[in-house]
Amino acid sequence: MNVKFRAPLFLSISVILVALCSCAAPKYRYYPKPSDREVETGVGSWYGSDFHGKPTSSGERYNMYDLTAAHKILPLGTYAMVTNLDNRRSVEVKINDRGPFVEGRIIDLSFAAARALDMVGCGIAMVRVEVTKRVKYYDIPYTLQVASFREKSNALDLKIELDKKYKDVYIVATTISNTEYYRVRLGYFKSEGSAQKEAQRLIEDKYTVFVTRRD
Question: pLDDT tens digit string along 91-102?
Answer without folding.
Answer: 999 999 999 999
